[in-house]
Amino acid sequence: MENKSLDKEIKQFVAFKVGDQEYGADIHKVSIIEKTLTTARVPTTPDYIKGVVNLRGEIVTVMSLRLKFGLPEIEEDDDTRTVIFKFNEALLGIIVDAVDEVISLKESDIESVTQITNDRSLDYILGIAKVEGRLITLLNIEKLITELLEK
């Protein structure tokens, strides 16, 4: 009985690709999705921080998810997008290879990663979703933003 009430709560996620992997993030944290933005590099920041942009009067830090996850950098193309997330008053842009779709998930569609490992570096992963035979890694955007603000 308890499981059925959990399954009634459907959450929506924006699904996107980085390399050959699919990721998802809570749609309520997405502010806007932009084509490629020209960033101003900030000295002494990690390589995965591409810089900052002025987006409608607000300064937004932009991060390459490829570099953050240890993947090689690739040339941006027509599919490349910058997803702008908002958490509290903080904005973070994340460069992804392509934005796929919006997916709706029930709690039962999501497996916890704590069953796989209890590695603290995986704090920014909410879980793994099974969608039509695909596996989508769901990201904890709040954790990524908080991690950046602390550095």
Give an account of the 3D structure:
With 151 residues, this protein is mainly beta. It has a single domain (11-150), classed as OB fold (Dihydrolipoamide Acetyltransferase, E2P) (Beta Barrel). Helices cover 14% and strands 48% of the residues. It has 3 helices and 11 strands. It has helices at 2-8, 65-68, 141-150, and strands at residues 10-18, 21-26, 30-34, 49-55, 58-64, 81-87, 90-96, 98-106, 110-111, 125-131, 134-139. Strands 8-1-2-11-10-9 form a 6-stranded mixed sheet. It has a 5-stranded mixed sheet with strand order 3-6-7-5-4. Strand 6 (81-87) and strand 7 form a beta hairpin. The longest helix has 10 residues, at 141-150. The relative contact order is 0.23. The model is unreliable at 1-6 (pLDDT under 50).
